[in-house]
Design brief:
By secondary structure, this protein is mostly helical. The protein folds into two domains: 114 residues, no CATH class; 115 residues, no CATH class. The chain has 15 helices and no strands. Helix 9 packs parallel to helix 11 and helix 11 crosses helix 14. The longest helix has 17 residues. The termini are far apart. The mean pLDDT is 95.
Length: 230
């Protein structure tokens, strides 16, 4: 461990809240409670802004494998602040294999990614073919974030529908994707439910999530409910 990594770890430990740690750990059943310090996100983001551009931050980012969940959240907070697309992509690729929980996965979203969507899309296709569940989840999340609005194409629905997995957190992201697609691209997305094109669990979960959304009107919710698998 470098001096910079040790310094950053000590800073995080000084901000730790044991009560909050216990709360956080319950939300992330896939990770060891002892690897959670309990630093609140506002403190993580504040530290990231303080460290951004420093030698310490560079050394920390160059060592993507960390012991603590809080170090991972600081890592992604620094990545999310990166303005250079190539650097953000390179460091995201290096970090993805070490993600071991949904929270870190879903918080990772570098702002720079919007600067080169064609290149990002090429990498999303690679991530979706990964054997690592959180890399796949991340790829679906990026497709949902950047390609469901003005950059939408119906082929993206087909790509996500084609993901077959036994992993809960992958299937949950597929459901989240289709629920969001129903709010943004309803007419294109609806046939995936009326024609039963999705896995049963994803199908039902996506309908449930769409029905929980304030962006779906009651008439559409009532209609979607008629297509639930019994």
């Amino acid at each position: 461990m470098t001096d910079s990594e040790m310094m950053i770890r000590e800073r995080l430990m000084s901000l730790a809240d044991e009560t909050y740690r216990d709360f956080q750990a319950k939300l992330m059943p896939t990770i060891d409670k002892d690897t959670v310090l309990g630093v609140r996100m506002p403190e993580i983001k504040k530290l990231a802004k303080e460290l951004k551009g420093t030698r310490e931050a560079e050394e920390f980012l160059n060592a993507p494998k960390h012991k603590y969940y809080d170090e991972n959240t600081l890592h992604i907070s620094l990545l999310n602040l990166e303005k250079d697309f190539d650097r953000a992509l390179e460091r995201t690729i290096a970090f993805l294999p070490y993600i071991d929980n949904w929270a870190v996965c879903d918080m990772l979203s570098p702002k720079a990614f919007s600067k080169n969507l064609p290149c990002l899309y090429d990498h999303i296709l690679l991530w979706l073919r990964s054997d690592k569940p959180y890399t796949v989840r991340f790829g679906i999340g990026m497709l949902m974030r950047y390609f469901l609005d003005e950059n939408f194409d119906e082929k993206y629905l087909t790509i996500v529908a084609g993901i077959k997995s036994d992993e809960y957190y992958v299937n949950m992201m597929c459901a989240w994707y289709f629920a969001t697609a129903l709010t943004k691209q309803y007419e294109s997305t609806l046939p995936y439910f009326t024609e039963n094109r999705l896995e049963k669990w994803v199908h039902n979960k996506a309908i449930s999530k769409a029905c929980d959304s304030f962006r779906v009107v009651k008439e559409k919710k009532d209609y979607l409910k008629t297509f639930r698998y019994k």
